Automatic annotation (TrEMBL):
A GO CC term assigned to this protein in UniProt: signal recognition particle
Entry's localization field: Cytoplasm
The protein's assembly and partners: Part of the signal recognition particle protein translocation system, which is composed of SRP and FtsY. Archaeal SRP consists of a 7S RNA molecule of 300 nucleotides and two protein subunits: SRP54 and SRP19.
Role summary: Involved in targeting and insertion of nascent membrane proteins into the cytoplasmic membrane. Binds to the hydrophobic signal sequence of the ribosome-nascent chain (RNC) as it emerges from the ribosomes. The SRP-RNC complex is then targeted to the cytoplasmic membrane where it interacts with the SRP receptor FtsY.
UniProt-listed InterPro entries: AAA+_ATPase (IPR003593), P-loop_NTPase (IPR027417), Signal_recog_part_SRP54_M_sf (IPR036891), Signal_recog_particl_SRP54_hlx (IPR013822), Signal_recog_particle_SRP54_M (IPR004125), SRP/SRP_N (IPR036225), SRP54 (IPR022941), SRP54_GTPase_dom (IPR000897)
Keyword Cell cycle assigned: no
Top EC class, one word: hydrolase
SMART domains: AAA, SRP54, SRP54_N
UniProt-recorded name of the protein: Signal recognition particle 54 kDa protein
GO MF term list: 7S RNA binding; GTP binding; GTPase activity
Gene source species: Salinirubellus salinus
Gly residues bias spans: 448-466
Disordered, as annotated region: 446-466
Domain notes: Composed of three domains: the N-terminal N domain, which is responsible for interactions with the ribosome, the central G domain, which binds GTP, and the C-terminal M domain, which binds the RNA and the signal sequence of the RNC.
């Protein structure tokens, strides 16, 4: 993830400020050094790093912290604001009819991004279509078609036509009914005349409303040259950074944004159509600094919940809040969790849990958790209706039988029952909360994610700065 180490290394230095009400020059110097180190490691352009660190330094030393603010909160706020300014606004993408052209080098993820973006727009209630003009890479047509089928969006391509401009022309005609037309172009292994000329001809014909440059997060310093070449050729309005789920650092993309005077539109976080996020500077930086990104989380939860409801007509999440929390409810929750995406990504979005928790866990702890959920499901499949509805009836003999039936150790069956007990207790606590408490909590979560993006605090408690 971009600037991955920044959150944890910065938290380390910030923790040393606990209890202090004033910042010394040494404190500021240490924090600035920490930030510089992380940014440079994340492949952020040196000139950008210099610019950022001098404004942080200047502000931290000269600005008077608002009354009652600790030195730590003061610095964190400045770092947050400056980082938000560094990554810039999100690319303007009104939810209305438009044509978007995707450009980028081979393998950057254009084809995948086209389908993901189409999926994203379709979830916003628009009708998108992908036009695949890549005649260069064998297989691009099939790949695009399959992904669009998975995304359940319209697709146009022609594997027998060799001229990409001709495909684009026909594609526009064929997709006239769509609201959003996403034109995917071919890439080459390096920047060359042919690629640029082809792109220019497609651009001229299509006359897109927006040109987006797709960049692999691993690109590093090369991003600047690429961005310049594409920017000179067709003009770039926004950047999509892909493969942020991997180990890549992504800092290079910031140079591309700077170079083309553009902004970031989307982030790609996996190979599936749903692995896309609209870039939101506040949430992005909050998450980076371990303050969580409640808005993204709320969106995912909402989506998973409505998918779950669509699949499972008898299920009403409100029921769970009222009566007994059964193993069936637990299984549904696990399914909903799975729909939200990898657990590690979900946890990363929860303020306070985010970076902090991830740092404490061994690297493979998350996989184990996913694996454990899988085992739990297998075990539940070996239980009878009655056992699922009334887990308290499961004694020693039944545990033995379930273990044999599921092929999982008795130990794991017991762990499942333990886990259920814990969740059940938690649900009881929620049930104890009045409706208004619950509503207040939800509202706070939404406001925080949508507005100040993590600056607003989580109500009366310590808040994300605590
Ligand atoms: N993990 C991960 N993989 C991705 C992501 N986006 C794309 N990929 C993978 O990257 C590879 C290249 O993606 P494509 O979409 O084929 O790239 P392209 O830019 O269209 O390539 P050309 O058509 O050759 O120009 C594929 O294996 C994708 O599955 C992402 O966000 N995360």
């Amino acid at each position: 993830m971009v600037l991955d180490n920044l959150g944890s290394s910065l938290r380390g230095s910030l923790d040393k400020l606990r209890g202090k009400s004033r910042l010394s020059e040494e404190d500021v110097a240490e924090i600035v050094k920490e930030i510089q180190r992380s940014l440079i490691q994340a492949d952020v352009d040196i000139a950008l790093v210099q610019e950022l660190s001098s404004s942080i330094e200047e502000r931290a030393l000269n600005e008077e912290p608002p009354g009652g603010t600790s030195a730590r909160d003061h610095v964190l706020r400045i770092v947050y604001e400056e980082l938000v300014a560094l990554v810039g606004e999100s690319t303007d993408l009104p939810l209305e009819s438009q044509t978007i052209l995707l450009a980028g080098l081979q393998g950057s993820g254009k084809t995948t991004t086209a389908a993901k973006m189409a999926w994203w727009f379709s979830k916003k209630g628009l009708r998108p279509a992908v036009i695949q003009t890549d005649t260069f890479r064998p297989g691009a047509y099939d790949q695009a078609k399959q992904m669009c089928e998975r995304a359940e969006v319209d697709f146009y391509g022609d594997p027998d036509e060799e001229d990409p401009v001709e495909i684009a022309r026909k594609g526009l005609e064929e997709t006239a009914d769509a609201d959003i037309r996403i034109v995917d172009t071919s890439g080459r292994s390096g920047l060359n005349e042919t690629l640029i000329e082809e792109l220019k001809s497609i651009e001229e014909l299509v006359a897109p409303d927006r040109n987006l440059l797709v960049l692999d997060a691993a690109i590093g310093q090369g991003a600047k040259d690429q961005a310049k070449a594409f920017g000179d050729a067709v003009g770039i309005d926004g950047v999509v950074i892909t493969k942020l789920d991997g180990t890549a650092k992504g800092g290079g993309a910031l140079a591309a944004v700077d170079q083309t005077d553009s902004t970031i539109a989307f982030l790609g976080t996996g190979e599936e159509v749903a692995d896309i996020e609209r870039f939101e500077p506040n949430g992005f930086i909050s998450r980076l600094l371990g303050m969580g990104d409640l808005k993204q989380l709320a969106e995912r939860v909402e989506r998973a919940m409505s998918e779950q409801e669509a699949e499972d007509e008898d299920w009403d999440p409100e029921d769970m809040m009222k009566g007994e929390f059964t193993l069936k409810d637990m299984r549904r929750q696990m399914d909903a969790m799975n729909k939200m995406g990898p657990l590690s990504q979900v946890l990363d979005m929860i303020p306070g849990l985010g970076g902090g928790l991830m740092d404490q866990l061994p690297d493979d702890a998350m996989d184990v958790t996913q694996e454990r959920m899988q085992s739990f499901k297998v075990i539940m499949d070996s239980m009878s209706e009655e056992e699922l509805e009334n887990p308290r009836s499961i004694g020693k003999t039944r545990i033995e039988r379930i273990s044999r039936g599921s092929g999982k150790p008795e130990e794991t069956v017991r762990e499942l029952l333990e886990q259920h007990k814990m969740m059940s207790r938690m649900m009881k606590q929620f049930q104890g909360m009045g409706d208004s408490d619950m509503q207040r909590m939800m509202k706070q979560m939404q406001q925080q994610g949508g507005g100040g993006g993590g600056m607003g605090g989580m109500g009366g408690g310590g808040g994300p700065f605590g």
